[in-house]
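To make this tangible, we now present a fold written out as C-alpha cells:
***
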Amino acid sequence: MYNFVIFLHSWLRWVVLVLAVVAISKALIGWLNKQPFTKQDNIFGTSLVGSMHLQLLLGLLLYFFLSPMGLNAIQEVGMKEVMKSPLYRYWAVEHFTTMLLAVILAQIGRIKSKKAPTDLLKHKRAFVFYTIALLLVLSRVPWDRLGRGL
C-alpha cells in the first residue's frame, strides 16, 4: 500500500505544478489585460485547488499511517531527535507544514477570487494566492528524489 500511495503522491505533483503554472499565467494575463474572468479561468482554479486537495489527502495518508518518516518517526525517536535530524525534520515537519500551508493559501485564493466583486480583482487575487502557494510547494518538493519516488 505504501508503494502505491507514494507513487501516486510523487506523480501527482506534476499535475499540481502544471495546473498551478496555467492558473497563475491565466490570472496574470487576465489581470494585466483587464480581461473578463471566464468559465475557463474558474475551471483552472478549481482544478488546481482540487488537485492540491487530492495531493494533501495522499500526503496525510502517508504522514499519519504509511510512511516511516512522518508521525511514526516522531513517535519512535521523539520530537527532540526528529528536530536534530535534517532528514526526519524535513519529512516530519518542514515538508508537511509547508505543503499544508500551500493548500490552505490556494483554497483561500480560490474563495477570495470567486467572491471578488470585479473581474480584475478576481484575477489579481487568484494570481497572488496561487503564486504564493506555488512558491511554497516549489520550496518543499523533494527535487533530489525525482524519478525515484519519495
Remarks:
- The two ends are 14 Å apart (CA to CA).
